[in-house]
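Example S7 (C-alpha coordinates).
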Protein backbone atom coordinates (compact mmCIF):
# COMPACT_ATOMS: atom_id res chain seq x y z
CA UNK A 1 0.00 0.00 0.00
CA UNK A 2 0.81 3.70 -0.05
CA UNK A 3 2.33 5.26 3.08
CA UNK A 4 2.60 8.82 4.25
CA UNK A 5 6.26 9.27 5.22
CA UNK A 6 7.14 12.71 6.53
CA UNK A 7 5.53 14.95 3.87
CA UNK A 8 5.27 12.47 1.04
CA UNK A 9 3.07 9.65 -0.16
CA UNK A 10 5.29 6.67 -1.00
CA UNK A 11 4.95 2.96 -1.73
CA UNK A 12 5.64 0.93 1.44
CA UNK A 13 8.89 -0.42 -0.09
CA UNK A 14 10.30 3.10 -0.15
CA UNK A 15 9.68 3.82 3.52
CA UNK A 16 12.84 3.22 5.52
CA UNK A 17 12.67 3.54 9.28
CA UNK A 18 16.06 3.64 10.96
CA UNK A 19 17.02 1.13 13.67
CA UNK A 20 18.05 4.24 15.59
CA UNK A 21 14.52 5.63 15.60
CA UNK A 22 13.69 6.52 19.20
CA UNK A 23 10.29 4.95 18.73
CA UNK A 24 12.12 1.64 18.37
CA UNK A 25 14.44 2.10 21.37
CA UNK A 26 12.27 3.95 23.82
CA UNK A 27 8.71 3.90 22.51
CA UNK A 28 9.45 7.63 22.34
CA UNK A 29 6.54 8.70 20.21
CA UNK A 30 2.82 9.16 19.86
CA UNK A 31 0.12 7.82 17.58
CA UNK A 32 -3.50 8.08 16.50
CA UNK A 33 -5.93 5.65 14.91
CA UNK A 34 -8.62 7.20 12.72
CA UNK A 35 -11.70 5.34 11.50
CA UNK A 36 -12.67 5.50 7.83
CA UNK A 37 -16.29 4.86 6.87
CA UNK A 38 -17.32 5.12 3.25
CA UNK A 39 -13.95 6.58 2.36
CA UNK A 40 -14.33 9.40 4.87
CA UNK A 41 -12.46 10.07 8.12
CA UNK A 42 -14.81 9.86 11.12
CA UNK A 43 -14.35 12.53 13.84
CA UNK A 44 -11.11 13.65 12.18
CA UNK A 45 -10.91 16.99 13.99
CA UNK A 46 -11.25 15.37 17.41
CA UNK A 47 -8.45 12.92 16.56
CA UNK A 48 -6.24 15.78 15.36
CA UNK A 49 -6.86 17.73 18.57
CA UNK A 50 -5.94 14.70 20.66
CA UNK A 51 -2.78 14.20 18.57
CA UNK A 52 -1.80 17.83 19.17
CA UNK A 53 -2.35 17.38 22.91
CA UNK A 54 -0.27 14.16 23.01
CA UNK A 55 2.49 15.87 21.00
CA UNK A 56 2.56 18.97 23.20
CA UNK A 57 2.65 17.00 26.46
CA UNK A 58 5.52 14.71 25.38
CA UNK A 59 7.27 17.70 23.76
CA UNK A 60 7.36 16.43 20.19
CA UNK A 61 6.79 19.08 17.56
CA UNK A 62 4.34 18.07 14.84
CA UNK A 63 6.28 18.05 11.53
CA UNK A 64 3.41 19.80 9.75
CA UNK A 65 0.44 21.99 10.59
CA UNK A 66 -2.65 20.03 11.70
CA UNK A 67 -4.70 21.24 8.70
CA UNK A 68 -1.98 20.15 6.28
CA UNK A 69 -1.57 16.81 8.03
CA UNK A 70 -5.28 16.17 7.89
CA UNK A 71 -5.26 16.98 4.18
CA UNK A 72 -2.41 14.49 3.70
CA UNK A 73 -4.39 11.80 5.53
CA UNK A 74 -7.35 12.41 3.21
CA UNK A 75 -4.95 11.96 0.27
CA UNK A 76 -3.55 8.80 1.88
CA UNK A 77 -7.06 7.32 2.15
CA UNK A 78 -7.73 8.18 -1.49
CA UNK A 79 -4.37 6.82 -2.69
CA UNK A 80 -5.15 3.49 -1.02
CA UNK A 81 -8.77 3.55 -2.26
CA UNK A 82 -9.81 2.78 1.32
CA UNK A 83 -13.52 2.65 2.02
CA UNK A 84 -13.86 0.76 5.34
CA UNK A 85 -10.84 0.71 7.62
CA UNK A 86 -8.43 2.66 9.72
CA UNK A 87 -5.57 5.08 9.33
CA UNK A 88 -2.63 4.54 11.69
CA UNK A 89 -0.42 7.58 12.23
CA UNK A 90 2.69 7.71 14.39
CA UNK A 91 5.25 10.36 15.12
CA UNK A 92 8.47 9.61 16.98
CA UNK A 93 11.08 11.94 18.40
CA UNK A 94 13.36 10.92 15.54
CA UNK A 95 16.67 9.21 14.88
CA UNK A 96 19.66 9.42 17.18
CA UNK A 97 22.16 7.09 18.84
CA UNK A 98 20.65 5.52 21.93
CA UNK A 99 20.77 7.96 24.80
CA UNK A 100 17.94 9.13 27.04
CA UNK A 101 18.18 12.94 26.69
CA UNK A 102 16.22 14.56 23.87
CA UNK A 103 18.60 14.58 20.87
CA UNK A 104 19.62 18.08 19.82
CA UNK A 105 19.62 17.47 16.08
CA UNK A 106 16.92 14.85 15.51
CA UNK A 107 13.75 15.73 13.63
CA UNK A 108 10.46 13.93 14.34
CA UNK A 109 9.69 10.98 12.06
CA UNK A 110 6.10 10.75 10.85
CA UNK A 111 4.53 7.81 9.10
CA UNK A 112 0.97 6.73 8.42
CA UNK A 113 -0.68 3.88 6.60
CA UNK A 114 -4.14 2.49 6.05
CA UNK A 115 -5.69 -0.83 7.02
CA UNK A 116 -8.73 -2.47 5.50
CA UNK A 117 -10.98 -3.31 8.44
CA UNK A 118 -14.60 -4.35 8.26
CA UNK A 119 -16.94 -3.10 10.96
CA UNK A 120 -17.09 -5.36 14.07
CA UNK A 121 -20.69 -6.30 13.37
CA UNK A 122 -20.67 -9.71 15.10
CA UNK A 123 -19.32 -8.36 18.41
CA UNK A 124 -21.56 -5.30 18.20
CA UNK A 125 -24.53 -7.70 17.88
CA UNK A 126 -23.66 -10.45 20.35
CA UNK A 127 -21.30 -8.75 22.76
CA UNK A 128 -18.07 -9.94 24.36
CA UNK A 129 -16.99 -11.24 27.74
CA UNK A 130 -14.23 -9.49 29.66
CA UNK A 131 -11.98 -10.28 32.61
CA UNK A 132 -10.73 -7.88 35.26
CA UNK A 133 -7.08 -7.08 35.82
CA UNK A 134 -4.97 -4.63 37.80
CA UNK A 135 -4.24 -1.43 35.89
CA UNK A 136 -0.43 -1.38 36.14
CA UNK A 137 0.10 1.53 33.75
CA UNK A 138 1.71 4.91 34.43
CA UNK A 139 -0.22 8.02 35.44
CA UNK A 140 -0.48 9.64 32.01
CA UNK A 141 -2.87 7.24 30.33
CA UNK A 142 -4.48 10.28 28.68
CA UNK A 143 -1.52 10.47 26.29
CA UNK A 144 -1.62 8.25 23.22
CA UNK A 145 2.01 7.14 23.33
CA UNK A 146 3.74 4.18 21.73
CA UNK A 147 4.37 2.60 25.15
CA UNK A 148 1.69 -0.06 24.88
CA UNK A 149 3.37 -3.01 26.62
CA UNK A 150 0.88 -3.00 29.52
CA UNK A 151 -1.99 -2.93 27.01
CA UNK A 152 -0.43 -5.74 24.98
CA UNK A 153 0.02 -7.89 28.11
CA UNK A 154 -3.53 -7.07 29.18
CA UNK A 155 -5.05 -8.05 25.84
CA UNK A 156 -3.16 -11.34 25.82
CA UNK A 157 -4.22 -12.00 29.44
CA UNK A 158 -7.83 -11.77 28.22
CA UNK A 159 -7.30 -13.94 25.12
CA UNK A 160 -5.48 -16.61 27.18
CA UNK A 161 -8.63 -16.84 29.31
CA UNK A 162 -11.01 -17.04 26.38
CA UNK A 163 -12.26 -13.48 26.93
CA UNK A 164 -12.47 -10.67 24.39
CA UNK A 165 -10.73 -8.03 26.48
CA UNK A 166 -9.76 -6.98 29.99
CA UNK A 167 -11.31 -4.36 32.17
CA UNK A 168 -8.56 -2.66 34.15
CA UNK A 169 -8.99 -1.27 37.65
CA UNK A 170 -6.91 0.66 40.18
CA UNK A 171 -7.67 -0.66 43.63
CA UNK A 172 -11.19 -1.64 42.59
CA UNK A 173 -11.91 1.57 40.62
CA UNK A 174 -12.61 0.71 37.00
CA UNK A 175 -10.53 2.70 34.50
CA UNK A 176 -10.78 1.32 30.94
CA UNK A 177 -10.06 -1.68 28.70
CA UNK A 178 -6.91 -2.51 26.71
CA UNK A 179 -7.95 -0.41 23.70
CA UNK A 180 -11.37 0.98 24.60
CA UNK A 181 -13.28 2.88 27.27
CA UNK A 182 -16.00 1.25 29.34
CA UNK A 183 -19.42 2.47 30.43
CA UNK A 184 -22.06 0.96 32.69
CA UNK A 185 -25.80 1.60 32.78
CA UNK A 186 -27.57 1.64 36.16
CA UNK A 187 -31.21 2.60 36.51
CA UNK A 188 -31.19 4.07 32.99
CA UNK A 189 -28.14 6.27 33.72
CA UNK A 190 -24.77 5.89 32.04
CA UNK A 191 -21.70 6.02 34.27
CA UNK A 192 -18.14 6.24 32.95
CA UNK A 193 -14.74 7.16 34.38
CA UNK A 194 -13.97 10.90 34.21
CA UNK A 195 -11.63 12.04 31.43
CA UNK A 196 -8.59 12.64 33.64
CA UNK A 197 -5.00 11.32 33.56
CA UNK A 198 -6.02 7.72 34.28
CA UNK A 199 -7.76 6.96 30.97
CA UNK A 200 -7.43 7.76 27.31
CA UNK A 201 -9.98 10.40 26.39
CA UNK A 202 -11.65 8.23 23.79
CA UNK A 203 -13.14 9.91 20.75
CA UNK A 204 -15.87 7.26 20.71
CA UNK A 205 -16.45 7.87 24.44
CA UNK A 206 -17.04 11.56 23.65
CA UNK A 207 -19.33 10.68 20.72
CA UNK A 208 -21.39 8.36 22.94
CA UNK A 209 -21.72 11.02 25.66
CA UNK A 210 -22.86 13.51 22.99
CA UNK A 211 -25.38 11.01 21.58
CA UNK A 212 -26.65 10.23 25.10
CA UNK A 213 -27.21 13.93 25.66
CA UNK A 214 -29.15 14.21 22.38
CA UNK A 215 -31.23 11.16 23.32
CA UNK A 216 -31.83 12.60 26.81
CA UNK A 217 -30.15 9.64 28.47
CA UNK A 218 -28.54 10.81 31.72
CA UNK A 219 -24.78 10.33 31.88
CA UNK A 220 -22.40 10.77 34.76
CA UNK A 221 -18.62 10.99 34.50
CA UNK A 222 -17.45 9.60 37.84
CA UNK A 223 -15.27 6.74 39.01
CA UNK A 224 -17.17 3.48 39.60
CA UNK A 225 -16.12 0.24 41.23
CA UNK A 226 -15.76 -3.35 40.10
CA UNK A 227 -18.80 -4.26 42.21
CA UNK A 228 -20.89 -1.60 40.47
CA UNK A 229 -19.68 -3.06 37.18
CA UNK A 230 -20.76 -6.57 38.23
CA UNK A 231 -24.19 -5.31 39.30
CA UNK A 232 -24.81 -3.02 36.32
CA UNK A 233 -27.92 -3.44 34.16
CA UNK A 234 -25.82 -2.99 31.02
CA UNK A 235 -22.14 -2.65 30.21
CA UNK A 236 -20.53 -1.65 26.94
CA UNK A 237 -17.13 -0.61 25.65
CA UNK A 238 -16.40 2.20 23.21
CA UNK A 239 -13.53 2.60 20.77
CA UNK A 240 -12.58 3.52 17.25
CA UNK A 241 -12.41 -0.15 16.24
CA UNK A 242 -14.82 -1.57 18.87
CA UNK A 243 -17.48 1.11 18.15
CA UNK A 244 -20.14 0.35 20.82
CA UNK A 245 -19.68 -3.29 21.82
CA UNK A 246 -21.88 -4.78 24.57
CA UNK A 247 -20.24 -6.65 27.43
CA UNK A 248 -22.25 -9.72 28.38
CA UNK A 249 -20.04 -11.22 31.09
CA UNK A 250 -17.37 -10.03 33.53
CA UNK A 251 -15.05 -12.60 35.16
CA UNK A 252 -17.48 -15.33 34.13
CA UNK A 253 -20.56 -13.69 35.68
CA UNK A 254 -23.36 -12.73 33.28
CA UNK A 255 -24.25 -9.03 32.95
CA UNK A 256 -27.89 -8.05 32.46
CA UNK A 257 -29.50 -10.93 30.64
CA UNK A 258 -26.34 -11.90 28.79
CA UNK A 259 -27.46 -9.84 25.78
CA UNK A 260 -27.16 -6.17 24.89
CA UNK A 261 -29.60 -3.95 26.80
CA UNK A 262 -32.03 -1.25 25.63
CA UNK A 263 -29.79 1.76 26.41
CA UNK A 264 -26.86 0.16 24.59
CA UNK A 265 -29.05 -0.57 21.56
CA UNK A 266 -30.41 2.98 21.44
CA UNK A 267 -26.87 4.33 21.48
CA UNK A 268 -25.79 1.85 18.81
CA UNK A 269 -28.64 3.00 16.56
CA UNK A 270 -27.70 6.66 17.08
CA UNK A 271 -24.07 5.75 16.34
CA UNK A 272 -25.17 4.09 13.06
CA UNK A 273 -26.95 7.30 12.09
CA UNK A 274 -23.80 9.34 12.84
CA UNK A 275 -21.88 7.09 10.41
CA UNK A 276 -24.55 7.41 7.73
CA UNK A 277 -24.52 11.21 8.14
CA UNK A 278 -20.76 11.31 7.52
N1 LIG B 1 -8.53 3.48 25.79
C1 LIG B 1 -7.38 3.01 25.26
C2 LIG B 1 -6.30 2.54 26.17
C3 LIG B 1 -7.23 2.99 23.86
O1 LIG B 1 -6.07 2.54 23.32
C4 LIG B 1 -8.30 3.43 23.04
C5 LIG B 1 -8.20 3.45 21.58
O2 LIG B 1 -7.43 2.83 20.95
C6 LIG B 1 -9.47 3.88 23.65
C7 LIG B 1 -9.55 3.91 25.03
C8 LIG B 1 -10.64 4.33 22.82
O3 LIG B 1 -10.39 5.58 22.23
P1 LIG B 1 -11.05 5.97 20.83
O4 LIG B 1 -12.52 5.94 21.04
O5 LIG B 1 -10.53 7.33 20.57
O6 LIG B 1 -10.60 4.97 19.85
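Recovered sequence:
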Amino acid sequence: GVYLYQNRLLPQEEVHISPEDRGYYFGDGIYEVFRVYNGRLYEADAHMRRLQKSAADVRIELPSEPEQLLHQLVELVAANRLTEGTVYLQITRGEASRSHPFPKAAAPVLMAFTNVLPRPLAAVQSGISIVSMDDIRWLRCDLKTLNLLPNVLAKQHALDRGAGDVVMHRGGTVTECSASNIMIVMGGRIVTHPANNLILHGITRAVVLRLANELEIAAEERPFTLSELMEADEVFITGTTAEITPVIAVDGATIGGGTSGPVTRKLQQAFERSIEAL
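Notes on this example. The longest strand covers residues 29-37.
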